[in-house]
Design brief:
Length: 133
C-alpha cells in the first residue's frame, strides 16, 4: 500500500473512528507509544464452540491456578458425582432461562426453607424410622 500513517496518541484519539476505518480498509496505521509504534489492524474473530458449564479448560487451570491435569481430573469427577447425586436425590434445581435475579431468588428460597423441607423425602423417611425405634 505504501507508507504507514503514524499518529501520536492525542492525534489518534481525536479521530479514532476514522483511523480504525482506514485500518479495516487496509491502510497501515500506527500509533506512537513511547519509542514503539503500535499498528492498528483487523483481527479475525473465530466463533468458539459451545462448552458445557461443568467443563474446565486444563490449560487455563494450570496457567491461572497451577492445577495439574490429575488434580483437575479428580475435581471434575467429584463435581460430576455431586451433580449426579443431586439429580438422584431431587435436590438439583433447574432454572428456566436463568438470569442473575432468578439464580439469586432460587438461592434465597432454598436458604429460607425450613431445614426439614430441604431434606429429600428419602432422608426424611430414614429419620422417621430411626426415631420410631
Amino acid at each position: 500500500m505504501g507508507f504507514m500513517k503514524t499518529l501520536t496518541i492525542t492525534e489518534a484519539k481525536k479521530n479514532l473512528g476514522k483511523w480504525l476505518d482506514a485500518a479495516t480498509k487496509g491502510q497501515e496505521v500506527g500509533i506512537i507509544f513511547g519509542a514503539t509504534v503500535v499498528a492498528l489492524q483487523p483481527v479475525e474473530i473465530r466463533r468458539a464452540p459451545p462448552l458445557d458449564v461443568r467443563e474446565l479448560n486444563c490449560e487455563y487451570a494450570w496457567r491461572e491456578y497451577g492445577v495439574t491435569p490429575a488434580v483437575l481430573d479428580a475435581f471434575n469427577k467429584r463435581v460430576e458425582a455431586d451433580y449426579q447425586k443431586a439429580k438422584r436425590d431431587g435436590t438439583l434445581v433447574t432454572i428456566e432461562n436463568p438470569t442473575l435475579e432468578k439464580i439469586e431468588k432460587a438461592i434465597a428460597d432454598h436458604a429460607a426453607a425450613p431445614k426439614a423441607a430441604r431434606r429429600t423425602p428419602k432422608k426424611r423417611a430414614g429419620r422417621r424410622v430411626a426415631r420410631a425405634s
